Every structure is written in C-alpha cells, then in structure tokens.
Amino acid sequence: MKTIFSVFLYLMISLSCSKSSGVGGSENVSVHVYYVSVSGDDGNAGTVDKPLRTMGKALGLVIPGDTVMVRGGTYYEPISFSKGGIQGKNVTLKAYPGERPVIDGSRVAVSGWSALVTMSNMRYIVLDGLDICNLSSASGSADPEGIYINGSSHDITIRNCNIYNIVNSSPLSNGRSGHAILVIGSSSMSVSNLVIEYCTVHDTKTGTSENITLAGNVTGFSVRHNKIYNTENIGIIVAGGDGLNPSGDAAVNYARDGVVSDNELYNVSMSNSVDVWGAGNYGAIAIYICGGAGTVVENNKVSNCDRGIGLVSESKIYPTATSVVRNNVVDSCWRTGIYMGDYLNFVGTGTKNCSVVGNTLHQNDRALGAFGEVEGEIRLTEHCDSDTISNNIIYAGDNDVLIHKYTSTGSANVFSNNQYYTKGTPQWIWGNLSGPMITSLADWKAACGGDAGAGVINY
C-alpha cells in the first residue's frame, strides 16, 4: 500500500513540475526578459550581464509575454514596435527598477509626422517608466510627437512616462503643430482599451494642437492620474476625427465612451508663448471634449490655465454629446471655468445631452474674453441643447459673472441646485454678450427657467 501511494505522489509531483516548467504547448512557453544598456552591444545575448545596446534590437526579438528592461542612460533612437502581445501576455518595454532611461530626439531629423515612439496597429503593449523628450522642428509641415498610436491598436498602456520638450517652433501661419501623445483611430476597428496613467507632460510647444490627443475611432479609454503643466495649448482633448482622420467612417470617426479622471493640469496657457500668440490671448482649454461623446471627466484639478474644462464642438459633423463633467475643481483660470457650446459665431453642432454636475469653480475670469466681455464661471455659447447644469459650487471673484449664456440659441437646458458664493452683488448674464446683468436670484431663476434649490451666499 505504501509503495502504491509513493508512486502516485511521484507522478503528481512530476506532472506539476512539467506544467510549471513550460514544457508542452505554446501556451506554456517561458517568458523572457531582454536587457538593454547604453554600454551594451546588439551582438550580446541580452542578459543582465550582457545587455543589448538598442531597444529596437530587443523589440525585434520579443514574443508575447516578453519584457524589455532598459537601464538608465540616454538613447538617441526613435523606436517603433513591430511586435505586440496577445491577451494575457503583453509585450512590455520598461525602465529597470530604480533607473530612468531617456529616449532623446535631439539628434533626430523631423520630417513630416515624426514620433519618438510609434505603435501602429499594435496590441497588448505596456510602455512604463521612460523619459521621452527633446524632439523639435521649425517646419510648418512637420509634426513632432512624443508617442504616436494609430490604426487599430488596442490594449495599450502608457504608464509613468515623462514627456517634455516636444516643440514646433514654426510660426502659426506655417502650421505650428506637435503632440506629446497622439492617438488617431484610423481604422474600421477602433483603438480600444487604451490607458494613459501616471505620466507627466510638460514644457511643450504644440502650437495649434494639443498635448494628449485622442481623435477618430477611439473607444474605451482611460486617461488618469497624469500631470500636465507649462504647455502652450490644450492639455487633453477627446475629439472627432474629421480633422486628423478626414477619410474615416463618419459613423465611428470620433473618440467616445472613455474616462478622463484624477489628472492635475496647471499653467496650460498661450501666455507661455506670447511671441507666438500675442499678449492677452487666453484661448487654451485644459481638458477639452471636442466632438467626442460618452466621456466622463471627473475628479480633475485644473488651475491657472487659460480655460478650465470645455464641452465645445468645433466640428461641422459631431456635437460634443452625452458627456459628464463632475466633481472637478477649476481654480484661478484666466477665462471661464467650464465652457459649453460652439465657438462664438461658429455655426456648428454645439453641445448636446451633457451634464455639468457637482463641480467647484473658484475665482476664474481673471481676464476679459475675446470680445471684451466677462466669460463667466460657466459659459454657454451657441447651440447648447438638453444639457444639465446642477449642484455646482461657484465662487465668484471680483466683478465676476457666475453663469453667462451668450445667445438665444439652444433649448431644453436644465439648471438646478447650484450654490453661488459672491463677495458683493451676484451677477448672471442671459442671452447676450455682455449685459444687462441679472443681480437677484429670483430674476436669475426666471431667466433660466429653473435652478430650483439654488442659493446665494456672501463670503
């Protein structure tokens, strides 16, 4: 009896060891870690003691589940992922623990749309812990990018990266444009399951473009816990693709159904490039849904930017729709805290079925708008329809306007339970550019047709 039990135990242990060792089907092949170092050699085996020299060489060797571990130092090589992973087995490019590798573009000649890291039709990739920096051009036909993701890429995570000094220094008239992270869904299959988290983006010159851009057929994304500062134009944009992907299928050519949360943005301002934009031009929006849909913008902190959060459409095709802005703090921006509708005098598609709920706005409107007006802590321009503005806490600064609706366009908007704080006489504007002012809560409720439960407190 003892002999039979011993044989049975031996067989069970043998089977268990065989399974864990990766012997058998391809699903059990052991994963591999390749090491890269500035002191390595691409003829090496890629071990920790004999590392490779370039990330490009290592990425050419990987199979699903493999990791490329990059030692600290400066690498003057743009990289393009040629292989991705499979479900459950990512291809990972990451910094060696405790070290900071730098992908430096200062030796790269930028021609057309050029990126330091490219993922085209890739899937199941993690990029973690690298600095990506110093890519610049003075050409209006160029677009320098830190990271570029396009096609039908999916299940991509960008984590703990530091992206800076991505610069286009051409004049605006020549098409000044660049991006820190550019994602264009340019296929019939969407870019999906995209995560951008715990990154910093700073000290960029992106001209008429943005820092983190999601446009075209992009769905199911999360942009969270990032910090964006000292930039000259828009911080984060979720957009229709009619600009960057004009040949896309109109039915799906817009970013949608994602979350922008827990980010911190400050000094996102055209005033960082006065020589380009001119003095007093405060047009940059920190977080911008522009022809996107189904996006939740929540728990972000925005301060000292040109404008705080925008639910604004510049598209002739796509309204900014079915999105929610909630529980954000917007403080000390040069112009409006939250902006809805078209650009003024732009006959477009507007803002439809969106909600602005539970936000705190504090003493924005430190500079007049483009028409010499006070934009208001919350600004509604043309074509706002079926939107809800409720339960917001609004602290007015000196000579501030609490809510400013510019035109008579728009319908079925609901105001309720907003709480207003003022140092003097409260001020609202309804249906025109600059007045007359509404100065009593009762008159405000009559003008907007609601705001039941609202209150005004002097502080």
Pairing-aware structural class of the strands and helices?
A: mainly beta
Q: Largest sheet, if any?
A: 13 strands, parallel
What is the percentage of strand-forming residues? Answer: 35-45%
The total strand number stands at: 41
What's the pLDDT, averaged over the residues? Answer: 93
What is the overall number of helices? 4
Summarize the topology:
Blueprint: H1 2-20, E1 33-36, H2 55-59, E2 67-70, E3 73-75, E4 79-80, E5 91-95, E6 101-104, E7 113-120, E8 123-128, E9 131-137, E10 143-151, E11 154-159, E12 162-168, E13 179-185, E14 191-197, E15 200-204, E16 212-216, E17 218-224, E18 227-231, E19 236-239, E20 259-261, E21 264-268, H3 274-277, E22 285-290, E23 296-298, E24 301-303, E25 307-313, E26 320-321, E27 324-326, E28 329-331, E29 338-342, E30 351-352, E31 355-357, E32 360-362, E33 378-380, E34 384-385, E35 388-390, E36 393-395, E37 403-405, E38 414-416, E39 419-422, E40 429-430, H4 441-448, E41 455-458
Parallel strand pairs: 1-2, 2-5, 3-6, 4-7, 5-8, 6-9, 7-10, 8-11, 9-12, 10-13, 11-14, 12-15, 13-16, 14-17, 15-18, 16-19, 17-20, 18-21, 19-22, 20-23, 21-24, 22-25, 23-27, 24-28, 25-29, 26-30, 27-31, 28-32, 29-33, 30-34, 31-35, 32-36, 33-37, 35-38, 36-39, 37-40, 39-41
